[in-house]
Each structure stands twice: as C-alpha cells, then as structure tokens.
Amino acid sequence: MVIESLFYFSLAVLQALEDGLKKADADPSVKAVMICGENGKFSAGADIRGFSAPQSHPGIGLAPIVSLIESSEKPVVAAIEGVALGGGLEVALGCHYRVAHVKARMGLPEVTIGLLPGAEGTQRLPRLIGVPAALDMITTGKHIPATEALKLGLVDEIAEENTIEAAIRLANKVIGQPLAPRRLSLKPVPTLPNMEAFLREALVKVKKQARGCLAPELCVQAVRAASERPFAEGLRRERELFRLLLSSGQARALQYAFFAERAVRRWATPAGASWSSANAQPVRSAAVIGLGTMGRGIVTSLVKANIPVVALEQDLENLKKGRKAVMLLLEREAMKMEGGAQRLDFHNPARLQFTVDFDLLRDVDLVIEAVFENMALKKEIFHKLSKICKPGALLCTNTSALNINEIASATSRPQQVIGTHFFSPAHVMRLLEIIYGSHTSPSAIATAMQLAKALNKIGVVVGNCFGFVGNRMMFPYVQQAVFLLEEGSRPEAVDEVLEDFGFKIGPFRMSDLAGLDVGWRSRQGQGLTGPSLPAGTPARQRHGQRYSPLPDLLCEHGRFGQKTGHGWYLYEKAGGRTATPDPWLHNFLARYRDTHGIKARAIDQEEILERCLFALINEGFAILAEGIASGPEHLDVIYINGYGWPRHRGGPMFYASTVGLPRVLAKLEQYSEVHPDVPGLRPNAFLRKLVAVGSPPLQEWMSYVSWQSPKL
Ligand SMILES: CCCCCCCCCCCCC[C@H](O)CC(=O)SCCNC(=O)CCNC(=O)[C@H](O)C(C)(C)COP(=O)(O)OP(=O)(O)OC[C@H]1O[C@@H](n2cnc3c(N)ncnc32)[C@H](O)[C@@H]1OP(=O)(O)O
Ligand SMILES: NC(=O)c1ccc[n+]([C@@H]2O[C@H](COP(=O)([O-])OP(=O)(O)OC[C@H]3O[C@@H](n4cnc5c(N)ncnc54)[C@H](O)[C@@H]3O)[C@@H](O)[C@H]2O)c1
Fold first, then answer.
1. Which residues does the UniProt record annotate as the domain 3-hydroxyacyl-CoA dehydrogenase C-terminal (predicted)?
2. Boundaries of domain holding 238
3. How confident is the model at residue 344 (pLDDT cuts 50, 70, 90)?
4. Neighbours of 215 (CB within 10 A)
5. 403 alpha carbon to ligand 2 midpoint, in Å?
6. pTM exceeds 0.90, yes or no
7. Which of the residues 95, 187, 512, 693 could staple to 567 if both were Cys, CB 3.0 to 4.6 A apart?
8. Is the pLDDT of residue 619 over 70?
9. Is residue 144 domain-shared with residue 53, that is, in the same domain?
C-alpha cells in the first residue's frame, strides 16, 4: 500500500496518514506499506505558522502517528525524495526502513526556529546513528545529503533514479522479516566510553556558539535524556523541553525571522514596481572592478555560483596582489566543496580572467564596481562603463553609502545603474542590500535579486539615501557608543553589554576589525574633520549638533584598529586579532574628558543597551516613514544577515515590538531630554504615531505610513 503525504503537515495530512495506516493494518491483502511525499518532496515537517497557536497545532497529532507507524505489524518503508525535514524526518524515523533519492536532503532544523524535534526525534535519532552524530544534526539543524545519511546509517538505501520503485522493491524483500530490530524505540542508545564528558563538552560548545540562544542548549538536554533514560521517560523530557521552548519569546523571534527572509523576496517600490511584474535579465557573465577587500570576495562569490568573471584592477601591481588574494580564497573554498577545485574551475581563463584593460568588459552582462569610496572616482568609472559596456549590461556599485543617483548621472543609462551592497567578507556574508535609484528600472531590480539568489545570498531591496538602510541605522548606534565613552564608559564595557545582548561583536571590536580609517576618510569627505573643517569649529559640535572627535583623534594617533595593532583595543601585533583593554586608551579618555570639562560618571548596563539600540531603532522608524524600505521585515533581515544582530531576538524592529513601542518611546524621550543636542535620540514622528494609535502589531505598521510625499 502507498500512502502519500503533503509538503508540510496539516491536520488533513495527519488524518490521511492515520487512516491509511489503520486501513493497511486491517487489510490482510496488504503485506507492506510505503510512505512517500507528493510532487517529489517527502516533507518539510510541521507547519511553522501554526506554532503561534500551539493548542490547535496539527503537530500535536504527529508523535502518536510516528508511534503508530513504528508499531505497525507490517513493514513500513519511507521513500524520501526532495527533503525530509523536522517532523518529516521524524515520520521517516518511525518507519522500519528508509530509502532516499541520491539528491534528497534530511535534517532536524527545529533548532533554527527556536524549538527541538518534538515528535520523538530527539529520542529515536541517537538510537539510530549514535549520540555524537545525532547531537550534531539536532543542535545545528543542518541539512545532510543522502550520501552522508547513508554513511551515518540514517537511511538504508540510496536510489539513483526512481525512489518509489526502490522503496517498493525493498518493502517486498523484507516482508515476513522480524520487525522488532527495526523499531528504534526498542533499541538502546549506543554507548560512548566518555558519554558524560562528551555531553558536558557539547553543552559548553553550544552555549559558546549560540550566545544567549536557548534552543541548542535544550536540544543537548533532550539528547542527554535519550542517553540516560528509558525511551518513554526520554519522551516525557522531550515534550517538557519542547513546551518550554514553544512558550519562549525566542521561538517566536526565530520563526518571524524565517518568514521575514522569505517575505523580502516579494519586493516592491513606492513607484509601483514589484517582483510580480518585473522580469530579470539573464546574467551569464560578470565583471568586478577593484580587487581590494570587497572585490576579492565578490569575485569568489561569482565563481562559486558558476558565473564567468572578468576581474579588473587599476594597475599591474594591484592586479597581481588582487589575483593572489582571489586565488587563495578560491582554493580555500574549493577545499570545502565536494568535487574541489575541478568543480570551481577557476584556473580556466574562460571562467576567471584578470586584467587592467576595460575593453574586456565589452560583452559582460553585469559589472560590479568595488573601488575606493570616492564619488569622483566612481563617477569616472561609471562614465567609462557607460561608453564601453554593451547596451543591456547592468552597472552595479558596491558603495557603502554614496548617492546612487549621482553615480548614475555619470552614465547615459541610469535605468541600468543599481547599488549592490555586499558585506565583508563578501563570499561569506549572506546579505546583499540592493539599492534602486530614481531611474533604476524594475528589470534591473529583478536582475539584482536574481543575482542574490544565484550567489546564495538574501537580497533586500531598499531605496536610496545616505548609508541606505543598514549603515544609516548603524550611524546613530555607533555614535551613542562613542558618546558613552565621552561620558565615562570604556570600549570593553560597551562591547560586553552588546555582546551579552547577543551581537556577534560589539561596536568597538567591530570598528577595530573594519578599520577606523574607513570612517575617518568618509568624515573627511563630508567636511566633518580634517583640513576642510572651517577654523573655529567647536571640537565637540558640528552643524549645531553634538559630535565626538574621539574616533578622529585615534586616527590622528595612527590607531586604525587591528591593522595597526591598536585602535579602541590593544592587539598582540599589527594584524593581530586578540583584543585586550588598553591602558593607553583609558588614560587618553581621562585626559580627553579633562580637556573638555566632562565629569566622568558611572553608566549602567541598561543605559548602554538602551541608548545604543533605541537610537538604531529610532532611525529604523524614520526609514520606514520615508518609504526607504517597504516594511520592518526588511530592516530586520538586513540586521540579522549583515550586522550580526542576534537572530533569536528577531531583528531590531521585531525587538522594539517585543519591548513595547510605548517603552521605546518613553526611554527615547527620557534620553533626549538629557541630550537635547543629539537628534538620534529624539523620538521619530512615526514611532510617536504608532504609539498614539495603540501600538499595533508589527505586520500592520506600514498601513500607518503616510505615502503622500515619499522621498523617492
Ligand atoms: C501549550 C500547548 C503545547 C502544545 C504542544 C504543541 C505540540 C506540537 C507538536 C509538535 C510536534 C513537532 C514536530 C516537529 O518536530 C516540528 C517541525 O517539524 S517544525 C518544522 C521543521 N521544518 C523546517 O524548519 C523546514 C522549513 N523549511 C525550509 O527549510 C525550506 O522551506 C525548504 C523546505 C528547505 C524549502 O526551501 P525552498 O525550496 O527554498 O522554498 P521556501 O523556503 O521558499 O518555501 C516555500 C514556501 O513554503 C513555506 N514553508 C516551507 N516549510 C514550511 C513549514 N514547515 N511550515 C510552513 N511553511 C513552510 C515557506 O515559508 C514558503 O512560503 P512563503 O513564506 O514564501 O509564502
Ligand atoms: N570594506 C568593507 O567592509 C566594505 C563593505 C561594504 C562595502 N564597501 C565598499 O566597497 C568599495 C570597496 O571597498 P574596499 O574595502 O574593498 O576597498 P579597498 O581599498 O580594499 O579596495 C579598493 C580597490 O579598488 C582598486 N581601484 C581603485 N581605483 C581603481 C580603478 N580606477 N580601476 C580599478 N580598480 C581600482 C584599488 O586598487 C583597490 O584594490 C567601497 O565603495 C566601500 O565603501 C566596503
């Protein structure tokens, strides 16, 4: 008998499974059962949306179905095609045999949505593949390919072609064989000589990796229960831990992030362009201009996506340097991949060519410019590209903040100019901020989004303003961090608070890593510091607003961060990575305060957290009100994937909604009163409006934006 199930479990699917199993058991002519999915996909598990109303969640019925399958008196074989994830894999674990298509993937990704496998998976998987492999799958949520599943013993057979036929063949073969040895609930968990130490170390590891995130820790506890308790008791523990996670705010935040990352694919602009009507152009070849920090990673990313690349530098010396760096990155990437260097094929000049000759850019479909952050230089390059490149070519800039319209004005085809803002390291970071200018065509946006997908990145479409979304929100955050130093704090204290909150790296460590000189050059360009600053400008004021010259002063002392061996911290050597608090910096701060008559005060953790985060969130409300982003999800996806915002807190705007908008507003009002010369702390009008209308849920915020005068 064949039972078909759907992509993710609904009540109807579970009912059909139960009915099918009962019918098969009762029918003497049925000798074996095969369970498969519909349309070549086994199952993506329980319906994630349903977890917001757990009492009526169809998943409640899943564990009893898994038990029912396992207790069947007739052999049950799972035919796994596409994916078997979460509850899908748990169903397969209830089966007596598993056959997987060679291209199928399997995993227990519940941890990534703040849960643990709650349909008996934490108890069956360790019995099948042992504690170390099960723990790895359950705490990381990774999807493993069928070939690896076979090696682990997770599946019994791999089918190169027709999985269903292979599963039926196996079912026929095992008819009449004893089923008890195939029932995982009856098997003992394979022992390890050092189980206790292993589990203890695993706990320490997940706590370190997922700072502040509850699910990985509770996954370890559930697997520990499998190793220490009888099956039925282990199940009780699994259920208890599952409920605990389900009621945690973290699960809600992580599930929000899952859907937000999918929602941003459906982009739209205030002018009416959208994903549903715009057509992407094919990108069969690309060029990258500038092989510095960013260009190298971008080339690597394109080669990995199998897109032939022309890589261009300004002169032979820089070309040689850039080529060496790209080759090193590609070799490292090839080592990580199955099929290695041969699959990447980067030694073939038809796939990757290095040049200083712009003429070689004539035929490419897309160019990504990644030269210095200098408007005059970028305009010169785009003017050249406009003359050289073929008519349909898309011209992209990797600028971090500059005006896309101004760059486009140097070309005769502004409709094909677009910002593609990669994040460092560009071959690793998943975010691609895609910035359209006033003239960018819908097709150009669609092409950039398609490029993001091809590069395995998450593209987020945003409007044009200084710093776009990510960096624009980052400015007030970093500004508050520096003001806190002026007022009495230290870099390590500020970083610790934000790292405890869950950021991968605090603002001062981040600044040392990126290089303080980058921001310094940008501020010099804006006339905020350096020779173009008008004589007589007060040291701590610009345009009537508070300004901190501290980062400029550090640069004047040659302290650029890791690259010079000192910045906000001290490093073991130039290029060193280990940050230690620096007594020089502490003395420097004390002298600075004396010079400017600032009385240092003790600043508590709450103030550090609120001033940094609420200033960032406040800017987010301004961005939404101006129509620069089409929803709070966009801001959250950008922060989670580009700025190390802790995913289990759902992104800054989601976090604001959990803190409560009235509280965010009240705190901003309080801080703004104390610091009236800091516009970043002055509550944004859109935030005020949302509070005035009763703080609606985040999904409804955009309906309160007045669109009469979008800035775009
Ligand atoms: C207080 C009372 C307590 C009561 C207790 C309640 C008990 C409940 C019992 C629980 C039993 C637990 C069962 C189990 O352990 C839990 C689970 O199974 S959780 C789900 C685990 N599965 C996943 O996390 C898989 C998530 N999906 C993916 O990774 C990917 O979608 C994919 C399957 C790899 C496919 O990727 P793509 O091809 O890129 O496609 P998309 O990602 O774009 O997806 C297409 C479309 O489908 C939506 N979708 C996918 N999976 C799910 C899902 N599991 N639930 C809901 N929706 C899903 C996805 O969102 C896309 O739609 P769009 O958002 O674009 O509209
Ligand atoms: N570094 C980051 O973290 C980061 C992140 C996102 C975006 N960006 C942006 O990416 C761009 C590049 O930044 P970067 O950090 O890689 O800079 P970089 O200084 O490391 O590299 C710039 C490269 O451009 C080359 N170049 C300069 N003029 C050129 C010309 N006329 N023709 C060809 N090549 C030329 C230089 O030789 C150099 O190798 C900037 O716009 C920057 O704002 C940087």
1. 467-571, 608-694
2. 2-247
3. confident
4. 26
5. 16
6. yes
7. 512
8. yes
9. yes
